Amino acid sequence: MPSELKQADALERSICAAVCAGNGLKAREIAKQLGLDHTMVNQTITRSGLLRELCWQDRDYRWHGLVKQARPHTGLQEFSGWYGTVSLFLSQDEQSWLSALEQGCTNIGRSLTDTRGLIHSFLDCRAQMRTLFRDLRQMLGESCLGWELVFEFRLKRSRHVRIYADVLVITENRVFSLEFKMKDAVDPDEVLQAAKYCPYLEIVFGPGYEVIPVLVLTRAADLFRFVPIGRAGAVLPVCSGDMLFNVFNEYLRFLSD
User: How far does CA 245 lie from the centroid of its chain?
Assistant: First the structure.
């Protein structure tokens, strides 16, 4: 990512965090807090498609955030096909969960035109997540039941850029962004796709969360490794569904070596 884009994302992230924490601040107050000129604050918000979607201004010209940057993430459901706790997800039968997801996708403007293909991918994703939490409950106990879970997260970055994250798993201080593909081989373009939403999710969730992009290949088996993200010099985890728990262990360290 070019340095000027990194700087822009960092500025958006700091402004969004200030707005969400204060939840009713004027541009001058935000600027003073961040050491900026107040015109830069207003210009950054109004020019950023992402911030315009995440922030709103009242009649007194005070800025408010739509998504709370702490658990529970109040407002997150407005951008999600399905949002709730892991406990709620596990308690819903397949049809109840699918109906709620379809209604949520309609609410956020997620196209369901390819109904047969989408439903198949939704149910495949659901099965993978149920396997993950079966494994995690055996390893972590019931503590993971309070984590937040999002299916089909949708945001607008600009007129031509849409952010579609398949699944977000939100722990105490990390957001795992899972990109699911019904394949068994690593495609470099899909690695880039899994990684590209990370800077935007960092803006949504704020500095208190580490965002971890993951590519999950549901037709593979016994796969877990880190692969390069293009030529950026960074890597991200790629795994099969049956090895997804290893990604969480890599960052949460609940298994002994």
Answer: 18
- Digit-coded pLDDT (tens) for 219-253: 999 999 999 998 878 999 999 999 999 999 999 99
pLDDT given for residue 112 in this prediction: 79
The CA distance from 201 to 205, in Å, is 6
Q: How many domains in the chain?
A: 2
Per DSSP (E only), the strands in the chain are: 25-26, 55-57, 62-65, 80-85, 148-158, 161-170, 174-181, 210-217, 224-228, 235-240
* Same domain for 134 and 203: yes
What is the reported pTM? 0.91
| Cβ atoms < 10 Å from Cβ of 86 | 23
| CA 192-20-69 angle, 5° bins | 55
Taking only the tens place, the pLDDT of each residue in 2-30 is: 443 454 578 898 999 999 988 799 999 99
State how far Cα 200 lies from the chain centre. 9
Instruction: Tell whether 96 and 145 lie within a shared domain.
Output: yes
- Residue 1 pLDDT: 43
Are 122 and 244 contained in the same domain? Answer: yes
Rounded CA Rg of the chain: 19
Q: What's the CATH number where 45 sits?
A: 1.10.10
